[in-house]
Amino acid sequence: MTELTPQFLDRSGAQPSGPEIWPALVVPRASIEREIERLADLDRPDNGRRASAVVHPYAKAPGLGLAPGTDVTINVLKPGEESAPIRRNSNQLEMCVRGTGVVEVSGEQIRLEKWDVCNIPSMQVYRHRNTGDDLFVCFTYSNAPVLEKLGVHYVEEDPDPSIIRRPRPTEPWKPQESAFEVDLETGGAKMRSYEYLVDIDVVESKALHWPWAKVRENLPFAPRTNNRGIMLLYNPATERRNGTTHSFFATMSGGTRSNRPPEVKRGHRHSSSSINYYFLGNGGKSVVDGQTYEWGVGDLMLSAPGWSEHAHYMGSPDGSPVDQGTLTVQDHPMHIAIESLIWQEEMDGRIHALGSEAGVKNYIGPRRKIVQP
């Protein structure tokens, strides 16, 4: 075995480096559709998973993704096909973009139709099945790039059938009788015994389903045009992290719009990165760090690289009503968990450390302040 020698890098007096910001990137609908057809033409792999990762040109292995901590995978099943069981310690969020099918997670089935969203929790056995007459196509978002960079992404194909159904807690957690803690009486610092490290309070994490038909009812589509224009798909297991999974939140935004696109103004920024899928509408544009990006319906976009100033503009150029819808996936909950979520809602305003101090008040959407009577 080759002997390894550590390095010492002198940081004395060094100035801290700033964020390494990736440029925004639009993945056109036409490119996505070509890749779907290419996958559909392949012979069925042994595990049944025809998949293609969408990778940003700035991404470096290990951990290739569309954003530094987020990968997006296009998954395709032909009618009647199903994938083999698998489990992994990354968490996932899926949107059905074509066809119909079933996602089976821990023995429970979720039936997906177009634009439905579901989550797949970490280390739960899952598989997919096409139950329709068309291709069953899903976009899958995961935190695999983070785990791959750490060298700890665990993937198990065809796991033991005995673990397909995960046992659920039958009684409230409490510390083992042998566990103890010591208060050092120095203002909050404590010591705890080893039991606390390996026997942790369980917050049940289940696969959940957000059907588009029900989500749509709670967005401002005609005739309910007074509904809020952006809503979080909330998973209660994420608690104060306000996620759809423990790594990501997904929001649905849109509605029936007849207003013309607003004038370009300053945007906002945050350390979490954001990926938009413009699944319904007539297109629009985004201004990211001063660069304008045009996008159309069906495009996928790294729309807000971490700490990039950004703003998105859509509407009806001729004033006629148009239905618009966007799925936004952002690694906001992960940043809350590791106390790194910084947020600047107004570019001339203060930077907030969300989750660690009082947050941004009186906003009902990006740069949309509540109008006081």
TrEMBL record:
SUPFAM superfamilies: RmlC-like cupins. Residues 1-20, 248-269 are annotated as: Disordered. Coiled coil: none annotated. Signal peptide: none annotated. This is Cupin domain-containing protein. Residues 248-259 have a biased composition (Polar residues). PANTHER family: 1,2-DIOXYGENASE PROTEIN-RELATED (PTHR41517), CUPIN (PTHR41517:SF1). It comes from Allosphingosinicella ginsenosidimutans. GO terms for molecular function: dioxygenase activity.
